[in-house]
Amino acid sequence: MRTQTYNLTNEGVTLTTYLLDSSPEMAHIGKRGSVLICPGGAYKFCSDREAEPIAMHFLGMGYNAFILRYSLNENSIFPKPLEDADEAMAFIIENAEDWNVDTEKIAVCGFSAGGHLAAALGTMGKVRPAAMILAYPCISEDICNEIECLYNRNQLPVIDKQVDDKTPPAFIFAAVDDGCVPVGNSLSMAKALNERNIPFEMHIYSKGNHGFSTGDYVTCNDRFDSKLSDWIPKCKEWLYELFFAKTIDK
After folding, report:
1. 27-73: pLDDT as tens digits
2. Among candidates 28, 106, 104, 97, which has minimal Cα distance to 65?
3. CA pair distance 89, 21, nearest whole angstrom
4. Which uninterrupted H or E stretch holds 180?
5. Of the candidates 13, 27, 78, 190, which lies 20 to 30 Å from 141 by C-alpha distance?
6. In this predicted model, what pLDDT tens digit does every residue of 17-37 receive, in sequence order?
7. Domains of the chain, start order
8. Is 151 helix (H, G, I), strand (E, B) or coil?
């Protein structure tokens, strides 16, 4: 595996690559699918719990992984974070040959505020990903009305109003008892996707609160619940059906 961190244009913004090696022993692996990861952190910081641990799971599924640490705090006024995501996508595509990336199979995965950015990339990006994985994302009017922890929440675009016919399919998960980002955000995104006939899969857990990441003892500290990690194999199956099933299952 090759890993390297690159500085992008905006101040403090980086893209870290995790590139898997190829082998003739793996017959189905040519160009790899990839996942661009946007950690959460209220546009104030990028959570380590939603960065490398997430990348490790996608690497285990056979995807290249990329972690975007985007513009924060006073630098997070839109469209700066979206510029970061656009630049990351362009950089991945520019290096696709060297990095063994299938440019038709790039997903974006975001958590909380990073879910807002991931959904912004999927609905407003210059080059949109082929899929969105949205974990307890900030989406709807609640950004302004209820999510007080978000930096510059009053100027963030309301994403469910940006969904159009070019929006990619989505995998969404959240918890009913989320005390930070109301579960209505995820439901609003699902409703907007459904109205545009955009395919999506959604999993709502009865308990989990906010920021449960991988749902295991590595990332959830003293409140992990094994049921919450269920999203990972479900997401693997969803991505497989979306990206590979038609070409491999014959």
Report:
1. 667 799 999 999 999 999 999 999 999 999 999 999 999 999 999 99
2. 106
3. 21
4. none
5. 13
6. 999 998 777 666 779 999 999
7. 2-245 (3.40.50.1820)
8. coil
